[in-house]
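**Protein fold record**
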Amino acid sequence: MKSYNPEIWTALFRGVSFFDILSDDDIVELLEAGGIVRYDFHEYIIKEGDEDNAFFVVLKGRVKLLKEGEDKKKKDLWYLEKGECFGEIGLLLKTSRSASILAGKECYIFEMSNKAIGTLPEATKSKLYKKISISLAEKLKSTTEYIVNPTLF
């Protein structure tokens, strides 16, 4: 991110649950290494099969996860709201995108590449990976519950 007011952006990040364990200094480090992008309604953020290892956090708005089935039709999988992240699989496993992400309405997304994460101080990086791990565990739990009892969803 080229120019920003750290106080304004830090306050915005403070209102997003994903960043709750980060200090103000950590948030400034993230802002300097990553960026904030605005997406319009129905604009693709990532497409299934793309080669990319960026990581994303919804700052404002909502995104929709889509997966192409065997019949080549896209199926809605899930919605993610403010404070939720995506792109963890591509980031950690360095694989192509396993699903498409579409803006469910106008949204603001924090984006950070794997390379940029590598430039963060170790303490900040450790906190970021802890939040990513928690997010993955929560998603695994939800997926398991869905498989066991899909009528709850």
